[in-house]
Amino acid sequence: MSTPQGATFYPNIDDDKTRFLRNGLHGEFESVWGTIQGPYEIAFVLKEKSCQNRRLANWIRDQRDNKPKESLASVVFFSILFALLLGSATETWIFVLVCDAFAIGCVRHIEFFFPIYFEPLIADTKVVSIYKNMDLEELRKLLRSLYWQYKTTSNWPTWVKSKDGTMAYPFSALVMNPETFERAGNDDHEKIFQLTPCEVAPLNHANVTLKIPRKYWNSKHEEFSQWMSSMATWLMHHWLRSLIVVVVLAETFSLNFAVVGIQGWTAQWVLRQADRMFVVAHIIITDPLRRIFRKGPVVSTSFGDFGFWENKPLPVICEQMMSRFDKDFWAANPEKCRQEYQDREDGFVMVTLLVFGLMFAYWSFKVSTARQLMIK
C-alpha cells in the first residue's frame, strides 16, 4: 500500500465546512481524529430474506407434502364445524364446498400458480472500496445505493458476518479496522462478508406501474399483517379468555344473527356468481363442442366412418345410431329421438372435458416437477 494520502477528520463538523487541513508545503497532514487510509477492497454478499408471502407459501407446501392426511383432515373438520355453527343450511354447505374445492386446487398446484415464491433466494455479491476512518453514514449510503433493489432502512446494515456465518462484527469495525476485511486479490473467494439480509423490493424500479400507490399499499399491508400476526399469537396463548369474550359479546349484541345474515348473503352471492360462470362456460366451452358434434365433418375410411354428424336431420342420426329402427320410426317419435341424441351429445362433451382436464393436470404436474428439479 502506498503512503497514506488524504486528510484529517474532525468530529461534528458540518458538511459545508472543510473537513481536512494541510500544513505547509511538505505534504504532511495533521492528525487530530484519524487519518484517511486506503482504499481497501472488501467483498460483500447480500442474501435475500424471505418475504411473508414466500414463508406462507413454503409452509403450505411443506404441510401438503409432509402431512397430507393431517392437513386434509383439518380442512374437513373446520369446514364441517363452520357449517354447523352457521345453521347447516343448504347455502352454507354449498359455500363451504366451493371454498374447499378452491383451496384444495390452489394448494395442490401452488407451485404452478405462485412460481415466484419457490425460486432460489438471490445472493448478490459486490466489491466496495473503503477508506479507514471514513464516515460511517456515508458508507451506509453507499451500500444502500449499490443494493437499491432491496428493502433497506436508514440504519442498515447493522452488522457483518463471515462467509460461513461463524463470526459476527459490528458494522463500525469496517471503518475502524478495514485491514481485517480486505481481500487478498480478485481470486480470494473466501473473504466475503455477509450483510444483514433484506427482502427484494421490485417496486424500487423506475418503470413500475402505479409505483407510489403500490408502495403505500405495501406499507399498510405489512402493518396490517404484523398486527394480525401479533393478534393471532395472543389469541393462541390466551385462547380460553378469548373464547369467553367472543361468546359474551355474541350473546350481548346478538352477533349470531348478523353472522347468519352475512353467511346467507354470501352464499346467495356465490350461487349467483356460479350461475354466471356456468353460463360463460356454456357459451365458450360446451356450446362449441355441441356444435362440433352436430355439424362437424365425417371422414370415411376402409375401417368405417369417423367424425361427426354433418348437420344431418335427427331421424337420420338416430337411424344410424340405432339401426334396428328406421328413420320413419324416429320421425314418428321425435321426443325419443331427441333424448337419445341428447344423451350421446352430453357424453361427448363430458368425455372431451375430462380428457382435457387430465391433460392439463398432467402438464401442471410436469411443470411443477421441472421447476422443483431446477431449484434443486
Structure description:
- Helices cover 56% and strands 10% of the residues.
- It is α+β, with helices and mostly antiparallel strands.
- It folds into 4 domains: 1-35, no CATH class; 38-200, no CATH class; 211-284, no CATH class; 296-375.
- The model is unreliable at 1-34 and 367-376 (pLDDT under 50).
Order of helices and strands: EHHHHEHEEHEHHHEEHHH
Number of domains: 4
Helix content: 55-70%
Low-confidence stretches: 1-34, 367-376
Distance N to C terminus: 44 Å
The biggest sheet, with number of strands, parallel, antiparallel or mixed sense and barrel status, is: 5 strands, mixed
**What is the molecular shape?**
elongated
Radius of gyration: 35 Å
- Secondary structure: number of strands: 7
Average predicted confidence as pLDDT: 77
Strand order of the largest sheet: 2-1-5-3-4
Beta percentage is 5-15%
Q: What structural category arises from helix and sheet content? A: alpha+beta
DSSP helix count?
Answer: 12
